[in-house]
Amino acid sequence: MLDIRWIRDNPDAFDAALKTRGMDPMATILIDLNARRRAAQTDLQEVQTRRNEASKQIGAAKSSGGNAEVLIAEVAALKDRIQTLEGQEQDCSEQLQTILSAVPNVPSEDVPEGEDEDSNVELRSIGTPPSFEFEALDHVAIGEILGGMSFEKAARLSGARFVVLSGQLARLDRAIGAFMLDLHTKEFGYTEVTPPVLVRGEALYGTGQLPKFGEDLFRTKEDFWLIPTAEVPLTNLAAEEILDEEDLPLRFTALTPCFRSEAGAAGRDTRGMLRQHQFNKVELVSIVHPDQSEAEHERMTTAAEEVLKRLGLAYRVMVLSTGEMGFSARKTYDLEVWMPGQQTYREISSCSTCGDFQARRMRARFRPAGEKGTQFVHTLNGSGLAVGRTLIAVLENYQQADGSVTVPEALRPYMDGREWLDPA
Questions:
Q1: Which three-class secondary structure state does DSSP give residue 5?
Q2: Which active-site residues does the annotation give?
Q3: Which 3 state secondary structure label does DSSP give 110?
Q4: Residue 110 lies in a domain
Q5: How far apart are CA 157 and CA 283, in angstroms?
Q6: Which ranges constitute the DSSP H helices of 102-200?
Q7: Which of 66, 101, 136 is the last residue of a domain?
Q8: What is the per-residue pLDDT across 355-410, written as a single tens digit (0 to 9) for each?
């Protein structure tokens, strides 16, 4: 959530930022609401002060035998006025909160402007896509050859956009997740967490999924929500906390199932495992001092990139445009891995810095050393990586002419030394 004081002091910059996000100007509306709220608060304080004074005067008048009827009538009128002003203040506060809750974060100054992915900017390209002496297959065809990848069985169990992995593919899927967790915890200092995958609405509000994106989520009858990403529980570990400056940074990682309704993705990526209702993902979350958020963004992206480097996969790093960034992000790097079966790069990780946007929603703060007051922390999140898409990339990039798939060296310790997957 944005700071209304910043909006009040920078209305033109705020409206310009909204324009890059494809939104209409809102500064005038928000500033007017805030002014009305503050006016009601000021009037309320003045009326309450006068009521207290009049109440004391009533007591003094009665004790001295004077006439207190006029003062009593004034106090009664002031009571009604207080109720009116309290209603006005609450109404303005609720409207302000509702509107601000639906306003996305302001992009960093160095984020490219644009409406869609065509405006994304390539930052760097790492590795060379493999060349094959045979026609490269996509992961669905490879899965049919290997066995152990069934969309039909999943459809009988759950419907479209699910998969059942078994045997050597299930083992490879598990190996990928374990490899990622070991890399991030042992070499990048992240603390492994096993969080709930069912959360309350407040947690999703804190990270910005609610109220605007409720249709993209799954909700239970008991009013829990299935997490769309472990970003939600990991970031909310700092919710309502006042941390000591010396405790920062906090770095968390988790391997969890993630659940997305894909309400806005009808007809997109319907073949295979690319876009599913349920998938596994290793998430990275950092809670940092504001002065360190930019450096942490680069560090987190490096950690995600290292997974792809260790697996020997060609990829590129893209800076997302203003129209492509997520709701809570100030700046986002997308990692896109080469997929031979599609002859294109596909997103496998997004690493975003959110500034204090999420922290304000969660009231996550820290106390600077030697100071009495508090400041909001900065939050960052990134995929390190999406396990299913990494599985796809491994299958397609390491496929062989005889139908087998070579296991990348980094994964062999997690596969009992196994060097390849055999055709069924």
A1: helix
A2: 260, 275, 347, 350, 389
A3: coil
A4: no
A5: 27
A6: 139-146, 151-157, 167-187
A7: 101
A8: 999 999 999 999 999 888 999 999 999 999 999 999 999 999 999 999 999 999 99
Tell me how far apart the alpha carbons of residues 296 and 289 are, in angstroms, rounded to a whole number. 10
- Domain holding 139, by residue range, is 117-421
Q: What is the mean pLDDT of the chain?
A: 94
pLDDT at 196 over 90: yes
* Residues 94 and 145 occupy one common structural domain: no
Task: Output the furthest CA–CA distance in the chain (Å, rounded).
Answer: 109
Could you tell me if 131 and 123 are in contact, meaning their C-beta atoms sit under 8 angstroms apart? Answer: no
Please list, residue by residue across 76-100, b when 16 or more beta carbons sit within 10 angstroms of its beta carbon and e when fewer do: eebeebbeebeebbeebbeebeeeb
pLDDT > 90 fraction of the chain, expressed in percent and rounded: 86
CB atoms within 10 A of CB 67: 9
Q: Token pair for residue 108? A: 């960093």
The SS3 assignment for 304 reads helix
Check the CA dihedral 326-329-331-333 and report its sign.
Answer: negative
* Structural domain contains residue 335: yes
CA 217 to chain centre: 13
How far is 313 from 310, CA to CA, in rounded Å? Answer: 8
Nearest to 368 by CA among 252, 239, 247: 247
CATH number at residue 88: 1.10.287.40
Instruction: Give the DSSP H/E element, type plus range, for residue 285.
Output: strand 278-288
Query: In this structure, are 362 and 276 located in the same domain?
Result: yes
Same domain, 389 and 306: yes
Q: How do strand 344-353 and strand 331-339 relate by DSSP bridges?
A: antiparallel
Is the separation of the CB atoms in 263 and 216 below 8 Å? yes
- Quick one: DSSP state of residue 399? B
- How many separate domains does the chain show? 2
- Domain end, chosen from 56, 71, 101, is at 101
282: tokens are: 């290793």
Residue 309 lies in a domain: yes
Answer whether the bond into residue 368 is a cis peptide, omega within 30°: no
Cα(239)–Cα(288) distance, rounded to whole angstroms?
13
| Whether pLDDT at 243 is above 80 | yes
**pLDDT score of 273:** 95
Picking from 71, 177, 175, the residue whose alpha carbon sits closest to that of residue 417 is 175
Q: Is residue 107 part of a domain?
A: no
